[in-house]
Predict the structure.
Amino acid sequence: GEAPDFFAYALGQSHKHLPEIMQHSGLTARPVFAPSVGRFAQGMAVQVPLHLGGRRMADLRDALAAHYAGSRFVRVVDPAARVVPTVLNHTNDLHLSVHGSDDNGCAVLVAVLDNLGKGASGAAVQNLNLMIGADEGAGL
């Protein structure tokens, strides 16, 4: 059948990227990771809900901005009213934004990117399979 317009996945909190998220962020507690996809050709928004633990959202934003200062492709941006997964299509950019409330101590770190790179490699394998007469899904 046709894919739904939107769905969340890996909600069992065993996503393959969680260990690397912890390693590269220095987190000692496993974060809640809430990836999702939609019915559009490319673009992605990844959400990581966080408890601020007495810190303020500005602290998180400032730490991210300092870490990515001078980065060619990663920018920390002001949170928009709506997160649009396709806003960076056709770029190699990644935007990070911090959403939430200092009053309740909850935040959501959001990364928006064009995920076509992975999609393009899969399409290349699929097209090669078609060209050589192999099973279209071989190697995917």
Q: What stands out?
A: The mean pLDDT is 84. The first helix runs from residue 18 to 25. The longest strand covers residues 44-51.
